């Protein structure tokens, strides 16, 4: 379980996250909406542990461990992974080598994994070197598939992805988050749901991903404040009909 309590974060001397409370239980996937510059990426980067995101208040717990000041590699070891919006190019490291590194001690069949995201032809290229926007997203997914963490943070996984590949990307995320499992003759839907352990936090502007996976909760981040919590489809509808400010108004009214 991920628990964030009253989190305050500064970036380059500016307060960018204020009084954030968030809880993601095992098996749950949350969607994070919010206008440009509201702090969504900053929240994910803070959970992942990037030191430039300075925690000035509050705590982050994962699996019962206080990770507020743990370095990134320790968080990754505990089972947190992230697919970045704009990951860096890494010259001198081939994509297949990176996938192996992400797999750690696990026995990884890189080609077999790459086939699942149609990425076999890119394995011999340097990581992200000259990759298109959509190719970067698939590369990020491939690395996450190799790591197979318990908490997965996705920063706009559909942005820059063509319509055909949106299905591939979204279905891969659904599979990673154990959302694709269906009831069988011997297992009811309730049992299938209870057996899910993976946690997800997904940033999206378009909500395309909601066509492919059922998310448990939607949240709106507005000017560094988590301002609404509701069914993600309801939130998306509200944003597209009335704009983000209406979400903020909802929260003020409910408080
Ligand atoms: N290195 C930096 N120095 C100063 N301010 C920064 C830096 N990086 C980000 N910011 C600012 O922090 C704020 C939050 O940025 P963040 O990337 O978290 O927003 P976001 O909600 O993810 O936006 P988007 O939807 O456009 O991706 C923005 O105002 C941004 O300009």
Automatic annotation (TrEMBL):
The keyword Transmembrane does not apply. Residues 2-248 form the ABC transporter domain. Signal peptide: none annotated. GO terms for molecular function: ATP binding; ATP hydrolysis activity. The keyword Chaperone does not apply. Keywords: ATP-binding, Nucleotide-binding. Belongs to the ABC transporter superfamily. Ycf16 family. This is Iron-regulated ABC transporter ATPase subunit SufC. It comes from Desulfosoma caldarium.
């Amino acid at each position: 379980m991920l628990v964030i309590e009253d989190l305050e974060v500064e970036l380059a001397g500016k307060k960018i996250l204020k009084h954030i409370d968030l809880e993601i239980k095992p098996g749950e996937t949350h969607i994070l909406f919010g206008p440009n510059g509201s702090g969504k990426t900053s929240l994910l980067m803070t959970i992942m542990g990037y030191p430039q995101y300075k925690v000035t208040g509050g705590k982050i717990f994962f699996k019962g461990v206080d990770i507020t000041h743990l370095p990134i590699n320790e968080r990754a070891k505990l089972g947190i992974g992230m697919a970045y919006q704009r990951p860096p190019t890494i010259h001198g490291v081939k994509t297949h080598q990176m996938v192996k590194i992400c797999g750690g001690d696990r026995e990884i069949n890189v080609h077999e994994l790459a086939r699942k995201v149609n990425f076999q032809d890119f394995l011999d290229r340097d990581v992200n070197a000259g990759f298109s926007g959509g190719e970067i997203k698939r590369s990020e997914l491939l690395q996450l598939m190799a790591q197979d963490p318990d908490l997965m943070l996705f920063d706009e996984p559909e942005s820059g992805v063509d319509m055909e590949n949106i299905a591939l990307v979204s279905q891969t995320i659904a599979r990673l988050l154990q959302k694709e499992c269906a009831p069988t003759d011997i297992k009811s839907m309730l049992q299938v749901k209870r057996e899910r352990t993976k946690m997800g936090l997904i940033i999206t502007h378009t909500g395309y991903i909601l066509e492919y996976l059922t998310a448990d909760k939607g949240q709106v981040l507005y000017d560094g404040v988590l301002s609404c919590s509701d069914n993600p489809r309801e939130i998306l509808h509200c944003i597209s009909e009335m704009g983000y400010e209406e979400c903020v108004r909802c929260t003020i009214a409910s408080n």
